[in-house]
Amino acid sequence: MKNAVVILFVTCFFLSFGAQAGGSFRLDSGRLISTGQSKSEVLVLAGEPLYQEVESIAVDQGGADDPVKREVLTYKLNGSIGGEYLVVVTLENNTVVSITSKQTSRM
Questions:
Q1: Exposed (0-12), middle (13-18) or buried (19+): which is 24, by Cβ within 10 Å?
Q2: Domain 2-106 adopts which CATH fold?
Q3: Residues in the chain with pLDDT < 50?
Q4: The dihedral sign for the CA sequence 33, 37, 42, 45
Q5: Using an 8 Å Cβ cutoff, are 7 and 13 in contact?
Q6: What's the pLDDT tens digit per position in 25-54?
Q7: 75: CB partners within 8 A, 6+ apart
Q8: Whole-number pLDDT of residue 12
Q9: Three-class SS of residue 56?
């Protein structure tokens, strides 16, 4: 029984670590780009993106809802564990909501 509890704890630990890792990217300088940051914070950390796309998303729900401004910033950055990565940072209303990365040597 004790071994089952330890295995369950270790499994939960690694699953929660994986979930956190999807919302951030660590630069080779050690600085971290993560969800919840503003666009200006990302620009200070990573500089100007290679490509930037801006779109407005509006859903008509019969009210006076404001549209969501979505920006997608694409970078080529060096990661903390080595190698160059293609990093896509998605912002909604000036706040980072998603970060995805793929090592360029594995594309």
A1: middle
A2: Beta-lactamase Inhibitory Protein; Chain:B, domain 1 (3.30.1450)
A3: 4-21
A4: negative
A5: no
A6: 999 999 999 999 999 999 999 999 999 999
A7: 46, 47, 49, 50, 86, 87, 88, 89
A8: 42
A9: strand
